[in-house]
């Protein structure tokens, strides 16, 4: 599966798309890895109550900093800071369309792959409440897809979402997961 994902995602480069000068630049990492049985997984995290979007489920990531060479480096740095894994051997295989968040971010998504079979995590509790290691097949399974409705600032909003155990993925993260699924199912 990783060969097909690598081929499909590497065909696209959206890293230079600017969604607006007033948006805060940020990036996230869909980190892919195979377990000892060669089953492909990714990592999601539930954000702590101390950060933006508290309690929400998302991929590791954060704001661009001047010391970052580019937004791909931001995603790698933030992944290392938040969940403590060694990102030195993470290969960035491509990126997805950037999306905006309700908090004024332009969020760029990078897809990375590591050959590490057993990742060693050191969770930064001030930012991450818990980690979820998710088989990619779980995201592909339509039994885990749903329509989510929530109260926006001025009206009810409804969009695609995903169920991960008792947790619900919605908003920008669900848009990212939807695009990722769409690409890898081609």
Short description:
The protein is of the alpha+beta class and 186 residues long. The protein is built from 4 helices and 11 strands, in the order H-E-E-E-E-H-E-E-E-E-H-E-E-E-H.
Structure description:
- With 186 residues, the protein is an alpha+beta fold.
- It has a single domain (2-138), classed as Nucleoside Triphosphate Pyrophosphohydrolase (Alpha-Beta Complex).
- 22% of the residues lie in helices and 37% in strands.
- Strands 1, 2, 3, 4, 5, 6, 7 and 8 form an 8-stranded mixed β-sheet that branches. It has a 3-stranded antiparallel β-sheet with strand order 9-10-11.
- The longest helix has 14 residues, at 171-184.
- The radius of gyration is 16 Å and the shape is globular.
Name a few traits of the molecule.
alpha+beta, single chain, three-stranded antiparallel sheet, eight-stranded mixed sheet, 186 residues, Nucleoside Triphosphate Pyrophosphohydrolase, 4 helices, globular
Detail the topology: elements first, then pairings.
Blueprint (H helix, E strand, L loop, with lengths): L1 H9 L13 E11 L5 E8 L9 E2 L2 E3 L7 H13 L7 E5 L3 E2 L4 E10 L13 E8 H5 L4 E7 L4 E9 L2 E3 L1 H14 L2
Parallel strand pairs: 1-7
Antiparallel strand pairs: 1-2, 1-4, 2-3, 2-8, 5-7, 6-7, 9-10, 10-11
């Amino acid at each position: 599966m990783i060969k097909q994902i690598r081929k499909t995602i590497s065909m696209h480069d959206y890293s230079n798309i600017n969604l607006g000068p007033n948006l805060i630049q940020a990036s996230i990492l869909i980190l892919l890895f195979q377990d000892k049985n060669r089953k492909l997984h990714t990592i999601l995290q539930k954000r702590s109550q101390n950060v933006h979007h508290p309690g929400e489920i998302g991929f590791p990531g954060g704001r661009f900093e001047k010391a970052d060479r580019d937004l791909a480096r931001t995603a790698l740095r933030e992944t290392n800071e938040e969940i403590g894994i060694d990102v030195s051997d993470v290969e960035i295989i491509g990126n997805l369309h950037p999306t905006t968040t309700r908090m004024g971010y332009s969020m760029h998504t990078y897809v990375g792959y590591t050959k590490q079979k057993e990742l060693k995590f050191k969770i930064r509790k001030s930012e991450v409440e818990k980690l979820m290691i998710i088989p990619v097949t779980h995201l592909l399974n339509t039994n885990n897809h749903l329509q989510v409705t929530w109260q926006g600032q001025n009206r009810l909003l409804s969009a695609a979402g995903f169920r991960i155990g008792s947790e619900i993925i919605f908003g920008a993260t669900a848009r990212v997961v939807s695009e990722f699924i769409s690409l890898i199912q081609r």
